[in-house]
Amino acid sequence: PPLHRQRHQFVVDFVKRNKPQKVVDLGCGECTLLKKLKFHREIELLVGVDTNGAKLQKKKNGLAPVSADYLQPAFNQLRIELYQGSVTQKDSRLRGFDLVTSIELIEHLTVADLECFSEVVFGYMIPLAVIVSTPNSEFNPLFPGLEGFRHTDHKFEWTRAEFRSWASKVCLEFGYEVEFAGVGQAPSDQQEQVGFCSQIGVFHRLRGRNDMFCDGAEDVFSYTLLYIINY
Ligand code: SAM
Fold first, then answer.
1. How many angstroms separate the CA atoms of 125 and 8, rounded?
2. Which atom of ligand 1 is nearest to the CA of 29?
3. Full set of structural domains in the chain with CATH
């Protein structure tokens, strides 16, 4: 299957194993991942955030229930919300989720914005788990004719060591542990040398839930709610 589907399938497999109830997809773009996740009805709240409000407006209709959805009365209630907003800004409605996903997003951020992203996601939203995927630049020589980055909007593409270094720093600073994975395999004789096409970090919070959010922080609403649907 194409790479973007493999990345989304990685998240779906995680959801099947870990059964998070509140999930937010940052940089949700075309809402493709949200559309897949809405079939996993252990999820009670499914949220998408993107800076591109026009894209969300265009794609939101695919999130509405179809009549077959109402024939599954055994399932929990599902609520879907879409926000226009930037991951560099805090919004208290996104605190305390079970899972935050960030699929092919961070490489679109400047170094300063990436710093904010880490603060906002790991230091403020404080979810139980975070899945971050980003290109692995060591794989790039396998793309014929590719010079520079895979996409003109990318601000960086990291080697495995660079990704590890960022991830370890985040873990130390905010109290998480990380496991590394990836999707998109090189031919078997090169796998070790170049790694996966997309590298993925799966972060888990070290401390339990009950010492969360006792910082008395005030509510902040910096995102714009564009769409809300209750199943
Ligand atoms: N996650 C989707 C996927 O897996 O197909 C889309 C990935 S697309 C390469 C990157 C997305 O991130 C775009 O939809 C873009 O609008 C969004 N984006 C870029 N900067 C952002 C920011 N600061 N906050 C939120 N979304 C952002």
1. 22
2. 14
3. 3-230 (3.40.50.150)
